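Hi W., the magnesium ion complex you wanted:
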Amino acid sequence: MKAILLAGGKGMRLRPLTIHTPKPIVPIFGRPFLHYQIDLVRKLPEIDEVILSLNYQPRRIEEMFGHGDGLGVRISYVVEATPLGTGGAVKYAGGSLDETVVVFNGDVMTQVDLSAVLRLHRERKAKATIVLTPVANPSAYGLVETDPDGNVRRFLEKPKPEEITCNTINAGIYVLEPETFDRIPKDTVWSIERSYFPSLVERREAFVAYVYDGYWIDIGAPDKYAQVHRDIMDHRFAAPPFEGTPLGFAMVSPEARVEDGARVDGPCFIDEGTVVKAGAHVAPYSVIGRQCQIEEEARIEGSIVWANTRVGRDAVVRQSILGRQCHIGRNSILDGGIVLGDKSVVTDYSRL
Ligand code: GDD
Ligand code: MG
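Structure:
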């Protein structure tokens, strides 16, 4: 069985982080995001190949994952010449399949039991099965109404406030029968959410919901991207590299150097080659990538710092995300919610 991961979006909401790093490979504790999804897909023994459906910066992603050697599953790539939307991409990547296929949005992090989803799909002889998850505010997602038997009765993408009738949304994980792809036009921009799912409902085809209320998050916006790090450090989501560590653990690479007189408070992560100088303070929920320099008396608090960034003496970085190779000048203060793209330079004494 094959799994298609839809990973061709531009990652607009994560800009500027995604200008040089496509969303599927944004680092989470130095590990490209797609690794976490592949870990999940691999738990389904039936899956023998993962097809990555790409169009934005596909090279970078192909170079990273290759044929999947060492990942435990074969990886192949399908690259659209121009973005075909979620439905067009499924048709393009899976149009010639003749067996049940699992489809994932390439930006969701979850521990849903895929075997149970597949079992339900088979028991109900469904044409499509969709994983739903409850959220407080469905407006940024696809709202899905079901009947008491768990059949999908309505699919409404990005509902307006007055259209919200329930709290279950599309979690971006589907089991589909390729015979239903006949309605998707070839090489045409087409939305699985706005056209394919509503058409299943309209034609009263067997379209079944699997409700999952465990851990689920879409990492596609900066606050959610940051949240996933906190959740892994807090063991709300069991995943490498914090799986099996004590709560509040300060994970400092043996190849990092924390100088005498520097302070490091867990939970936090400091990757290899990074230097934390005397008097600097890495406060809880900080994630510092490879080869960074945190200078004397600088303070990092609840922030994510990508590789090769330097934070100058006496600077303070709070609840922010810094891309690669940034330079934060001395005595600067980044006071919450700041997102800087790669190679940003913040002049000494700046206030952001
Ligand atoms: N190959 C390809 N081509 N992939 C695409 C394209 C495309 O043209 N457009 C989007 N994708 C991929 C994105 O990379 C992402 O992994 C996935 O499809 C979903 O796109 P997003 O842009 O992240 O959509 P969203 O988050 O606003 O909404 C979707 O996800 C929600 C759950 O997170 C919808 O499926 C909602 O219904 C759902 O609730
Ligand atoms: Mg998304």
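The mean pLDDT is 95.

W.
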